[in-house]
Design a protein that fits this description.
Elements (H helix, E strand, L loop, with lengths): L4 H12 L3 E4 L6 H9 L2 E5 L5 E5 L1 H7 L2
Antiparallel strand pairs: 1-3, 2-3
Amino acid sequence: MSESNDDLKLIREIVAHGGRKYTAGLVDRTRYQRLVDLGWLTAFNLNMNDIEYVATEQGVAAAAR
């Protein structure tokens, strides 16, 4: 899978805000899942509807490009 400009923009935003993104409820998480697939984020299921994403070392490196 190849990253897009949107992927880079999103990982830069997440890293700039502490390296974490919390999503609650029934929201479209497709763009975050792409970053998980790229190895840039790790997803932690907090409960049935809430997921916290944390930037990996690869994600931080990608954000610095």
